[in-house]
Design brief:
heterodimer; A: Heat Shock Protein 90; 2 domains; five-stranded mixed beta sheet; 7 helices; 67% helix; B: 217 residues
């Protein structure tokens, strides 16, 4: 009896000590796990900010080089022509100068359009995407079709711009990397929000590759997409429809429509 | 106190008796249920030792101590770990348990320690402590768990209750079968556990004071 009681006391004490150790170890594990998650999130946040800044800088450099190399050069030529025309009053030189000025105006307009698509502001997402698809199809390298079964109403400015930019970036990536011959873009207005679907027959991204790339260094375009998605609370998913790759963007429309 | 006890045993008894003093001193500005417990426990320990020295029967005091201990621990744990919506029920259950203990002990004899009901109460403390530890895990308030006073109090009471639970449970049987063993268990198991518990509670109060200074600074 005595030894039984002593054993029982020892077992109880050992159990208690075991429980205490378990609690200590468990709490340390939970805290470590939380710290890991926090550091991953911080790193990802940092990368997104960096990508956003880098994207902005690259855009500025592109605009600067377009202004300097293209518009600047054309305007310098105009200046030379006008200088020559002052001496000779040659009508042909004046005509050439006018043509060059027209060219410069068109280039400036193009840059301005790239910065903030006027069509998007004036006519909305549907018209802009129709124009975008038609413009790319004109190149002859690829067939791009846009469909919108139910006409889209005007949406929040931020939603329209974000969806448009995301589609621009995704299409640009498909053209650059996927070697696709046809792309189909579809926008559907659902009760839950706006669903945008891109289907292409090239070599597309999978969900896993997309996530891997967004976590890796570089891939500024994809990180910009992540930033844009975040800004409108949207989500993106990748899957396959037969042999074709499909990208779906779900954008909630809780914000007040314009 | 019997003369046949060794010096080591006597020192152990005195240490156990006085071990509550640091906790009483350190936590005196807290005025919480756990501090009240430490204070009353210290008074009961001193009383028990004095009665033992004077060879006066002291078993009646154990019943009162069980009651006081249960009330203090219940108040502390209900306040610290019980969700707000269950607090009322928990206090009713505590009241019911006190009533049961008083009636059951009175029916037996208030002059003899009610060991079995005491064991039930110690079982309840183990349950309280497990709930307390679960809450500590759920609500991680401190990066280092050993800085959490609730965790320290739970560990102190859990170890103390785990050791004492079995002694109380088998006390009645061992009292008749192996009287020497039960005395040894009280002296060499319960006394060290009592010292350990009181020192840990004192450490918990030190942490509470430190945390208060950190917050106010």
């Amino acid at each position: 009896m005595g030894s039984l009681v002593i054993t029982a006391i020892a077992v109880m004490l050992l159990l208690s000590v075991g429980i205490v150790f378990f609690v200590v170890l468990y709490q340390r594990r939970v805290i470590k796990h939380q710290e890991d998650i926090r550091s991953i999130n911080e790193r990802k946040q940092q990368e997104l900010i960096q990508a956003s800044i880098r994207g902005e800088e690259e855009e500025r450099m592109r605009i600067a080089s377009e202004l300097h190399d293209d518009v600047g050069a054309t305007l310098s030529s105009v200046r030379l022509f006008l200088h020559a025309a002052r001496r000779s009053s040659d009508a042909e030189i004046l005509d050439q100068s006018r043509d060059l000025l027209d060219d410069s105006i068109r280039k400036v307009r193009n840059i301005s359009h790239k910065l903030q698509p006027a069509l998007l502001q004036q006519l909305g997402l549907q018209a802009s995407l129709e124009s975008f698809a038609a413009m790319l199809s004109k190149t002859g390298n690829i067939t791009i079709a846009y469909s919108c079964p139910v006409p889209l109403p005007r949406l929040n400015d931020n939603v329209e711009l974000s969806v448009y930019r995301i589609l621009q970036e995704l299409t640009s990536n498909i053209l650059k990397h996927a070697h696709a011959s046809s792309i189909t873009i579809e926008t559907l207005l659902l009760p839950a929000g706006l669903r945008t679907v891109i289907v292409h027959d090239g070599e597309g991204l999978t969900e896993a590759t997309y996530k891997e790339l967004t976590y890796k260094k570089g891939a500024i375009g994809l990180k910009n997409i992540v930033n844009r998605l975040k800004s409108v609370n949207a989500s993106i998913s990748f899957d396959m429809q037969g042999d074709a790759y499909r990208i779906i963007i779900e954008t909630p429309l809780s914000e007040k429509r314009v | 106190m019997p003369d046949n006890l060794s010096l080591f045993t006597k020192v152990l008894i005195y240490l156990s008796t006085l071990s509550g003093l640091p906790a009483v001193m350190v936590g005196r500005n807290k005025r919480s249920a756990i501090w009240l417990y430490v204070l009353l426990s210290f008074i009961f320990d001193v009383n028990g030792t004095v009665l033992r020295i004077m060879n006066i029967p002291r078993f009646w005091a154990s019943n009162l101590f069980f009651l006081v201990e249960f009330l203090c621990f219940s108040c502390y744990f209900i306040g610290a770990i019980c969700p707000q919506k269950y607090k009322k029920v928990a206090y009713y259950l505590t009241g019911a348990m006190v009533l049961y203990f008083v009636i059951h002990t009175s029916m037996k004899s208030i002059w003899h320690t009610n060991f079995v009901d005491g064991a039930i109460l110690y079982g309840i403390y183990i349950f309280y402590c497990l709930c307390g530890l679960a809450k500590v895990i759920q609500e991680i308030e401190y990066v280092m768990i050993e800085r959490n006073p609730t965790f320290i109090f739970c560990v102190a009471i859990l170890l103390y209750a785990s050791g004492s639970f079995i002694i109380l449970l088998f006390e009645n049987k061992l009292l008749y079968l192996e009287n020497g063993l039960i005395l040894s268990l009280w002296l060499y198991v319960r006394n060290p556990l009592n010292i350990f518990k009181n020192l840990l509670i004192a450490y918990g109060f030190i942490l509470m004071n430190k945390n208060k200074w950190v917050r106010s600074s």
